[in-house]
Amino acid sequence: MLPLPPAPLQPHPVEAAPVKAAASQFNNSWTDVYETKVRSCLRKEQQQQQQQQQQQQQQQQQLNGASGLLTPPVSQLIQLWERSGSSGEEPLDVGKLTFAGVCRTCSAPVVPELTVHRIWLSTKPRNATDVSLITQLSVDRLRMLEGQCSNWGSVISAAVHVPLMKGRVVSDMDDLYGQGPEKALEMISEFHTRMEREGRCKLDIVFATSVVTKMVEAGLYPVNAMRNKALQLSQTEIVLLLDADLLPSRPLSDTITKPAHYYQLQKDTARRQIYVLPAFATKYYGNEARDNAFAASRSRDVLKDMSTRGQLRGFHVHHYFIGQGIVDFPRWFKTNDSYSIPYQEGFEPYVLMQRRFVPWYDERFKGYNKNKVVHVLHMHSLGLEFNSCPHGYAVHVPHPEGKTRSATELTGTWDKAYKDSPACRSGACPTSVIPRSRMPPASTAPPPQNVC
């Protein structure tokens, strides 16, 4: 497989001239090397395929999982992200390099082009037993991130998104709509400063924008691309994959970050065990329901009492049972032990697992529908096993329905999700290739003379 060249840099003003010249020379050299070497590289790749089959199988999990591109230190990723501009800026056609070497009939995927503007890192002390909560959200849902930060006493790795049309923010927030991205950046910066002062969490944020040409496209939130950005920013061995509108139970992070609990969790998840957090939701909406969600997230006894009285129920079980219902909520309430949860297609749990076993999210899925279902299907295909988490749970915070669902239907993305989903199930998306925007490279060194 041809190695990917580093993305072209957007130089800092103080070093504009030398960096610009180097970038130009770098891109030209890559074009020349590619044109002259690609055919011989593909031949060599075919000849070595049988000899390296066992090695490729061993490496497949790493290349496919998050750890394959998470080895650079955070400081290096920050420099590359701040200077590289859009994830879509490549000196070569990424589709040819990521797909042609694996499947000669595959076409390059359509994935979002995200421009990363800034990264904020918490200055709070890090611990060896930290567990990162991985989440993503649009800038108008920072209040939900604040709720997570009030409950989670460890690291949160959050990707925050803003759509831009003609360089202006598209948002439901009146004081943000029509402003430049710098206004959103200022808002996020103030929020991060406040969370450093008031929140329990150690909050890391990456802020990214995407360009839309129509208002309806602003509702096609690039959910899986943003999940990948948050996942890449994380640097802990164990992660919790959770959407922004769900609160982790407050005692969970305190329990699993204690050395004895953490090392047992580390041992279990290293054996490809995934721990599923049962997810609950209030039966009604409004401020009272929101208060109930927060109260339930603070105590399992309160959670059980509200469930008994009918104020809470399994998340989405009334209209999509398989998504969370197979966790078996009555059984979870009756035991403090973990039990196996047989996978069924359509399952979309919130999970604790080893970061190195997390597959990248398929970024073709935007807006609403199938984005998490396909990701969990991928986990299952990689041999990961699902078990109930006896130490914690999640509670959905009620909120007004956004424009994502309607935009997904109006643009035809809903139907496309149904079309792409069976293709992934049947193997058209092999486990060694996932449609996604390219991540920042580990090095900015010039390309090698021999690309094979």
TrEMBL record:
Q: How does it sit in the membrane?
A: Single-pass type II membrane protein
Q: Which GO terms describe its molecular function?
A: glucuronosyltransferase activity; xylosyltransferase activity
Keywords for this entry? Glycoprotein, Membrane, Signal-anchor, Transmembrane, Transmembrane helix
Where does it localize? Membrane
The cross-references to Pfam families, in alphabetical order and at most eight, read: Glyco_transf_49
Membrane-spanning residues where? none
Q: What is its main location?
A: membrane
Organism's domain of life? Eukaryota
Statement: the UniProt record of this protein carries the keyword DNA damage: no
**GO CC: one term?**
membrane
**Biological process according to GO:** protein O-linked glycosylation via mannose
InterPro entries linked to this entry: Xyl/GlcA_transferase (IPR051292)
PANTHER family annotated for this entry?
GLYCOSYLTRANSFERASE-LIKE PROTEIN GNT13-RELATED (PTHR12270:SF52), GLYCOSYLTRANSFERASE-RELATED (PTHR12270)
Task: From the Swiss-Prot or TrEMBL record, give the protein name.
Answer: Glycosyltransferase LARGE2 isoform A
User: What is the organism of origin for this protein?
Assistant: Micractinium conductrix
